[in-house]
Amino acid sequence: MNLLNALRTRARGALLVVVLLFAIAPLALAQRAPSAGTGSPLSQTRSGVPRIGILHSLSGAVADTEGVLKDVALMAIEEINARGGILGTRVEAIAVDPASQWPLFAEKARQLLAQHKVDVVFGCWTSVSRKAVLPVFQELNGLLFYPAPYEGEELSRYVFYTGATPNQLAIPAAEHLMSREGGGATRWVLIGNDYVLPRVTNKILRAFLSSKGVGERDIIEGYMPFGPYDYRGAAATIKTFAAGGKTAVISTLLGDSNVPFHQELANQGLTSANLRVLSLSIGEEELRNLDARPLAGHLAAANYFMSLGNPENDEFKQKWADYAKAKDLAGQKDKPLTTDAMVATYVGINLWKLAVERAGSFDVERVAAAMSGQTLRSPTGDELKMDEKNHHLQKPLFIGEVMANGQFNVLWKTPGPIKAQPWSQYIAGNEYKKDEP
């Protein structure tokens, strides 16, 4: 049954486009590059100098989310250069601003690959932006590292995915909620904003729940417009539905949609004490800009939380705090936060470095082959591995309880990293698709 009719978001106005060129080490751009003789690693770069492109919005609707990914990428590159670069050569970084406009992502990707001649790109956030750039990377034989959790149902030889697929995020979260430890849910509310990620994720979740014996009458599903919205009707429907048995709510609502939703649940007597909401799309950065108190006691699933206690995370958080202060980063210099997507970006850049060193070359094809099975100890405290075939990073899942201060109390973790399934087993026809690009 439908919770509410899907609504469309309002069109956005044109946004400023800014192109930024960064030299990561002092005078790196001013210095003459080492000679790129025939057969040398530099002769296999696109420009004669190793260059990394950063394709994240620095203005517009998603700049708060993407801007910090640009910053953590620059931090990682600065660290690499401080340790002597890659194959003895300093790396340049070039950042462009697609300004949260999905068609502009393709234009800026082309600019990075064709004009700036970068050897790899780290970027995109929404699935719309990723899909917009794929033809460009295919045409120009580029390599993209994508850091966001996404809906899966894609596998490209031109992309390495360091974010999670549904079987690394939504499915284990649902399995936990079904367990005795997780509350033993028997009825399910699937609610999200109206775009591709929630719809595909919920399609997969419905099929998964059905495979576990959950009937259609025990699942409701609805999609809401972005931003502030009157959730009284939705909350009333959920309240009536939850009276029928142990109910879990899995939410893919983004950002500022969460506060009015949780406030209205509380207004109707639904709190974390009698109905827990688990979010697949909220983390530390989103909570920074929200009043987290209505969300306190509810749950979130992620592949990393800042509050994880381990030496690798302590080191990562300190590096970020020092960098944010040194670079005078607004919003971060006084209250530095680390997030799942930041870790995915940081891990991706360092895995690419290791692959270049294994290949002994910056050539796209050789580096892509060298990514197979590459491993790195991460701030999750786990050794993460790029799958040998499917271009997806193997990752653990954590479930945390939202605290009023915007952090998470980690309650549960999978036994170890999970192998990604780009083609969900819960979508018909996927059994015939190969687990490699």
User: What is the level-2 CATH architecture name of the largest domain?
Assistant: 3-Layer(aba) Sandwich
Average pLDDT for all residues: 90
Q: Which overall shape is indicated by the principal axes computed on the Cα atoms? A: globular
What is the ordering of alpha helices and beta strands? EEHEHEHEEHEHEHEHEHEHHHEEEEE
Q: Kindly provide the name of the CATH class of the largest domain.
A: Alpha Beta
Total beta-strand segments:
16
**N-to-C terminal Cα separation, in Å?**
37 Å
Tally of DSSP helical segments: 11
CATH topology of the largest domain: Rossmann fold
Q: Report the biggest beta sheet as strand number plus sense, adding barrel if it closes.
A: 7 strands, mixed
Strand order of the largest sheet: 8-7-9-10-11-15-16
Helical content, roughly? 25-40%
Name the structural class: alpha/beta
The CATH superfamily label of the largest domain reads Response regulator
Number of domains: 2
**Regions with pLDDT < 50 over 5+ consecutive residues?**
1-37
**Cα Rg:** 22 Å
Structure report:
By secondary structure, the chain is an alpha/beta fold. It folds into two domains: 217 residues, Rossmann fold (3-Layer(aba) Sandwich); 177 residues, Response regulator (Rossmann fold), CATH 3.40.50.2300. Helices cover 32% and strands 16% of the residues. The chain is built from eleven helices and 16 strands. The strands form three sheets. The chain has a seven-stranded mixed β-sheet with strand order 8-7-9-10-11-15-16, with helices on both faces. Strand 4, helix 3 and strand 5 form a beta-alpha-beta unit. The protein is globular and about 70 Å long. It starts with 18 loop residues before the first strand and ends in a 24-residue tail after the last strand. The N terminus is likely disordered.
